[in-house]
Amino acid sequence: MKSLVLALTVSTAMVLPAFAQDGIKEFNIGVMGGENAQDRMTANACLQKYAEEALGVPVKLFTPADYDGVIQGLLGGTLDAASLGASSYAKIYLTDPEAVDPVLVKANLDGSTTYHSIGFARTYSGITSLADMKGKSFGFGDPNSTSGYLIPLVEIPAEGYSMKPGEYFGEIKFTGGHEQTIIAVQNGDVAAGVTWADAQGDWADGYNSGALRKAADAGIVDMNQIVEIWKSKPIPEGPFVVRKALPDDVKTKFTALLAELGEKDKECLYGVASGETAGFKPVTHEAYNTIIDVRKAELAAQ
């Protein structure tokens, strides 16, 4: 017991200089919903380890049940960083423009920084497009999800299909996240659902990156048993943000860690970025002006 106490004392003493240097005692990373909490923890455990090495302080991962848990954590200052969807970033910015700084965005293998909202159904359902969805239930992940709700809410009505429950689709259901939507479709709880993907690579793999790729890799879904029925226009990838009030050197160190993650550990990057990507590259607030305008219009219409 004495040796354990001594070891802990030495370990704490080694960390204390970093506390003084960086002005923080811990660093908290929020991990958005989309898959179950344990899988999110597992995929980001390597980032937690590398962040502790880079910052010299304890790093914790938080996996709230819904998107708003991360949003409120960043607004309230209990979270220091998180990977957000564009719609979630827009909500934070519209609530408090001084809360976070967008620093990096995931790049696809071709260098682009967009992705798509993907509508899908079971192969044997006979549903091949939105035209087959009249009177049928439609699953969406979370009200704060860009691809899982905001973009379909805008683009699907523009194609002539009302998103008001009962007017065209039978029922609009919120499943709680992207993985939950995939499972709901597979189990027949909803006739079709919407999730996200880069829409690059092969459908049989779940594309290169996104919720379908993660689910296919995990054995949650057999891509041969689901079919794409709708695809949105390109959507700006959401940013990795850091809390604006953090010391500049903390923000610099964490941003550098993420930017170099692919060179340091490709397997770690695969988990953090939800599939095959070209890593993270710099991004600024201006990349999200359009999404902010869409979110503002949605709020005004409520």
TrEMBL record:
Gene behind the chain: phnD
NCBIfam families per record: 3A0109s03R, PhnD
Key word Cytoplasm present: no
Matching SUPFAM superfamilies: Periplasmic binding protein-like II
Protein name: Phosphonate ABC transporter substrate-binding protein
Signal peptide, first to last residue: 1-20
Family in the record: Belongs to the phosphate/phosphite/phosphonate binding protein family.
Keywords: Signal
Record's keyword annotation contains Signal: yes
